[in-house]
Amino acid sequence: MVSRLNMMKRSTRSTSFNVAPLALAAALAAALAGCNLAPTYQRPAAPIAAAYPESSPAGEAASSIEWNRYFADARLQELIRLALANNRDLRIAAANIEQARAQFRITRASELPTVSAAVSGSRVPGANDTITSTYSAGLAVSAFELDLFGRLRNLTAAAQAQFLAVDENARTVRISLIASVANAYLATLADEEQLDLIRRTLATRDESLRLVQLKFDQGVVSKVDLEQARSLVETARVALAQQQRQRANDFNALTLLVGQPLPDNLPPGTTLAQTNLADLPAGLPSDLLTVRPDIRAAEQQLVAANANIGAARANFFPRISLTASAGSASSELSGLFKSGSWGWTFAPQAILPIFDYGRNAAGLAAARAANDAAVAQYERTIQGAFREVSDALAGQATYAEQLRAQRAVAASEQSRFDLADLRYRNGAASYLDYLDAQRSLFSAQQAAIQANQLRLQNQVTLYRVLGGGLK
């Protein structure tokens, strides 16, 4: 301890010699600063076709259309605003971003030396029953790694890419939330139309039962006709109870998405029949690489895996670290900070792995396997996005015609029912013909509402899978 104290004191009288190791280390670090063992990153080719199977109209890209322009319903717009402010999944995504940002800052800080204030004191028994005392105070840098082979830089690059991936995942949550709120809102509109239809059907069947009951009391019809009329009424009541339950479930789902109880002062909205969502152009499949945040997130994970290969390769090379301190040292506590007590220590260390029983080789193999998995995940994400867009485009091309045809069916069934009702009242048709026409009309009207709901929800899905909702 005495010799160390004397060395620190002598160092203040030989500054020209002591600067040389620091200058040499700085020059060596500068010369090797550009060394990076990570493979050169190249974006994998997209494993999809050059065009979609279905054609689409020309127009403004979905990713460029703000959500409040695409969804014109004032009530839906307010629900989306509330969801963006209160939804818990969105809050979790925001917290994940902050966590990833902090982790990136922690990793990046390892590239720079950590300077600490150090105060120490020791008393050691010496020869002839003496006690040697040493006290020191100053600044210290402990085990600062010179990143000559890019290990720390690659770890920082990987952390940065993972942070960017988390940020892109949050964007995915946002556009998914907007689409989910829109679909849940459309479901509640469909529920209202179905309930209105069922109530009107129930009223019609109640009136029909009343007439059949009168005819039965007069002996005109049999008990079979009466029981059939009653069965139709109860069937309508079953459908009413089911639809009321479905409306409650859809309302609860919408409330969960919004993140709070729905306020009573929401602006008025439109009905499902009045709602219209414009057709969207698909563009080229290659556009998905830039407009889909889930694809961008998968690519950032691939960038991180590529950087981790560089960090694993650097483990095969020497790891040089520096430990240094500068301050005051004295054999007496009262002598600290006095003239002549200042000095410094400098202790470089180089470690080269020789026998590690395959640890570094296994680490490199694991990094390469993780990179292969990231490539496959990236390609699968692209293929999944291509299928989602293709499915939604197929829906855009066919749902409008399906709705038109289903409404035509409902109109024909309405005419058929009116004629059957007239013929039955005049005794020209049997009650069985009347019941069949009534059931067919109800089914056709329900199917028309469902077809319109599916058409609108498909447009919401197409807007989402084309990257709409970020603006």
UniProtKB/TrEMBL annotation:
<dbReference type="InterPro" id="IPR003423">
    <property type="entry name" value="OMP_efflux"/>
</dbReference>
<comment type="similarity">
    <text>Belongs to the outer membrane factor (OMF) (TC 1.B.17) family.</text>
</comment>
<keyword id="KW-0449">Lipoprotein</keyword>
<keyword id="KW-0472">Membrane</keyword>
<keyword id="KW-0732">Signal</keyword>
<keyword id="KW-0564">Palmitate</keyword>
<keyword id="KW-1134">Transmembrane beta strand</keyword>
<feature type="signal peptide">
    <location>
        <begin position="1"/>
        <end position="25"/>
    </location>
</feature>
<dbReference type="Pfam" id="PF02321">
    <property type="entry name" value="OEP"/>
</dbReference>
<protein>
    <submittedName>
        <fullName>Efflux transporter outer membrane subunit</fullName>
    </submittedName>
</protein>
<dbReference type="InterPro" id="IPR010131">
    <property type="entry name" value="MdtP/NodT-like"/>
</dbReference>
<dbReference type="GO" id="GO:0005886">
    <property type="term" value="C:plasma membrane"/>
</dbReference>
<dbReference type="GO" id="GO:0015562">
    <property type="term" value="F:efflux transmembrane transporter activity"/>
</dbReference>
<keyword id="KW-0812">Transmembrane</keyword>
